[in-house]
Design brief:
Shape: globular
CATH architecture: Alpha-Beta Barrel
Distance between the termini: 8 Å
Radius of gyration: 20 Å
Strand content: 5-15%
Number of strands: 13
CATH class: Alpha Beta
CATH superfamily: Glycosidases
Mean pLDDT: 97
Largest sheet: 8 strands, parallel, barrel
Structural class: alpha/beta
């Protein structure tokens, strides 16, 4: 069965950050520090999904999706990151899973979507190797409760983005600015993934995946220097997180670090545990030029000549086809089936006088990207699912509530949900689909 779904993340929608025993996450700390987020906005309330989840499940049922990708908040289950389990937190996800199944919607939980328990950050966060084993322990706790009803699990969401924005550039929580010194955070996330795969399977999980943010990388010109720079960026963004998982080895990282002393014997074997699917999040290609100064071995030249989203991201649907066929060409038989675990766009969705939201640009975006995915499938790429980001307008990390990605508009003052034109379009689209697509 092809999975047609939508997706969210815990810190972006749940709210209730101080309720029912939940511990603090790095995003609670980061968002409350002055100057970290747009307008000082936080996820304290977000979409209040923790209290309004029945309404949100009903919206999904009305949409007609057969799968829902959500994330579980590590600090809601284990407030200190390890030790005592917080029963009310685990109970919340238990109720959500049962409600989804009652509507014929397959739950697809992600165990880590950037909300590391603050207690573990104070130990070093993803720079601390011990956190890897604690993540596997957390995976075992959650799967011990839910694996009897949840067939497909995702360990991590976008470890590249978490490393680059959270540890290298300081744009996301935990706000560190280590630049290439952030590479151990990449390795430790991947090692945690591998250990979690073992823990999930031991707890009865039938299928396990990892979600990577991937981008086609275009050199700014055919000049050798630009081509080399593009290759260096491809290594950092794509291959650093795909090669160890699929091939059991790191690409050449000499442009970024003189050695990989943080990699120990046996780590790569653990990281390369067989997967049932690779989650791919796609938003846009990246255009890279040779560096003009000291620092990283590339410059982001920007993709021009295409329409853009409200975020300023270029809209390039065929980039998805290029990405998928490129993964197949690079990894061949080592590539498991692919799930498009995020694809969507932010738009300036202003309600009309009658309360409707005519987000025609989002309809066009989704229609063209689904067509590009199908072209890749026609070229032999094994794609098993497509999830729209996102179900709801939500807390968009450092951008606060300024960027709206949802199929459903949220008035953050009243928490009123209003399905947009894209919601109704996707509902009609899904009604027409053969589930064996």
């Amino acid at each position: 069965m092809f999975l047609w779904g939508t997706a969210t993340a815990a810190y972006q929608i749940e709210g209730a950050t101080g309720e029912d025993g939940r511990g603090a996450s790095v995003w609670d700390t980061f968002s409350h520090e002055p100057g970290r987020t747009r307008g000082g906005q936080t996820g304290d309330v977000a979409c209040d999904h923790y209290h309004r989840w029945p309404e949100d499940v009903a919206l999904m049922a009305g949409l007609g999706v057969n799968a829902y990708r959500f994330s579980i908040a590590w600090p809601r289950v284990l407030p200190q990151g390890s030790g005592q389990v917080n029963a009310p937190g685990l109970d919340f996800y238990d109720r959500l899973v049962d409600a989804l199944l009652a509507e014929g919607i397959q739950p697809v939980p992600t165990l880590f979507h950037w909300d590391l328990p603050q207690a573990l950050e104070e130990r070093g966060g993803w720079l601390d190797r011990d956190v890897c084993a604690l993540f596997a322990d957390y995976a075992a706790v959650v799967a011990g409760r839910l694996a009897d009803r949840v067939p497909l699990w995702i360990t991590l969401n976008e470890p590249f983005v978490h490393m680059a924005y959270g540890y290298a550039m300081g744009l996301h929580a935990p706000g560190r600015t280590l630049m290439t010194g952030a590479l151990p955070a990449a390795h430790h996330q991947l090692l945690a993934h591998g250990l979690a795969v073992q823990a999930l399977r031991a707890a009865g999980a039938r299928q396990v995946a990892l979600t990577n943010n991937c981008t086609p990388v275009w050199p700014a010109s055919r000049e050798e220097a630009d081509v080399r720079a593009a290759d260096a960026y491809d290594v950092l963004h794509n291959r650093l997180f795909n090669d160890p998982v699929l091939l059991g080895e790191y690409p050449d990282l000499s442009a970024y670090t003189p050695d990989l002393g943080f990699v120990r014997d046996g780590d790569l074997k653990t990281i390369a545990a067989p997967l049932d699917a690779l989650g791919v999040n796609y938003y846009n290609p990246t255009r890279i030029a040779a560096p003009t100064g000291d620092g990283l071995p590339f410059d982001d030249a920007g993709v021009t000549g295409f329409p853009t989203t409200a975020f300023g991201w270029p809209v390039v649907p065929d980039g998805l086809r290029e990405l998928l066929t490129g993964l197949k060409a690079r990894y061949g038989a080592a590539l498991p089936p692919i799930m498009i675990t995020e694809n969507g766009c932010s738009q300036e969705d202003t309600p009309a006088a009658d309360g409707t939201i005519d987000d025609a640009a989002r309809v066009d975006f989704l229609d063209r990207h689904i067509a590009a995915m199908r072209r890749a499938m026609a070229e032999g790429v094994d794609v098993r699912g497509y999830f729209v980001w996102s179900l709801l307008d939500n807390f968009e990390w450092a951008e606060g509530y300024d960027q709206r990605f949802g199929l459903v508009h949220v008035d953050f003052e009243t928490q009123r949900r209003t399905p947009k034109r894209s919601y109704h379009w996707f509902a009609r689209f899904l009604k027409d689909q053969n589930t064996d697509t």
